[in-house]
Automatic annotation (TrEMBL):
One of its GO terms (cellular component) is plasma membrane. It comes from the Bacteria. It is found in: Cell membrane; Membrane. It is a multi-pass membrane protein. PROSITE patterns: SURF1. CDD domains: SURF1. This is SURF1-like protein.
Amino acid sequence: MRYLFPILLGLAGAGILVSLGLWQVQRLAWKEGILAQIEARITDAPVAVPAAPDAEADLYLPVEARGVMGIEDIYVLASLKDIGAVHRVISPLTLEDGRRVMIDRGWRPVGAPVPARREQVVEVTGNLHWPQEVDSFTPEPDPSGLMFARDLPAMAQVLGTEEILIVLRSSTDPDSTITPLPVSGAGIPNDHLQYAITWFGLAVVWLGMTGYWLGRLRKTA
């Protein structure tokens, strides 16, 4: 009887941990399915910019547009892996129907020369996006106008546009100093495999501790 409680406790604890690991495996399959759907949508054939796009229903919607690209750029400080600090370049685009939207044209290294340019008609393709980058720790824009997050309401107010952002994939007037940074599913967290491994590992440790406990009980018998 003295071994019954440790055995039951060990099996119960390991069972709970294994069940949590299996749940994370199921979540992994679900998340991979969602990511596959997102990737498929991102690369769908582009459509015209909707009159009133919805942040949820139209997230990542591929669009194409033609209009006049303005020169009133906004720079957003960002950081890219293996590159470091960069500026995202946000520009206004006046569509043929008179609407004004924003284009995330990509990134330029901080301190890189900015070539002179003029307003001109361009055709662009990209994806609608509503980035969630602003939180309580986000600094206010710098006096120079530099922003520290893609804050759609704030950027739209500065540029005089609608709160619509097209993240560029291609343009008929590419800027050689700017590298497009199209949206992709790569930035969406998917840590379920690591969580599953952690739970299964804890189950093994729990059983090991149970075995150690039983061994101690045997020695003191």
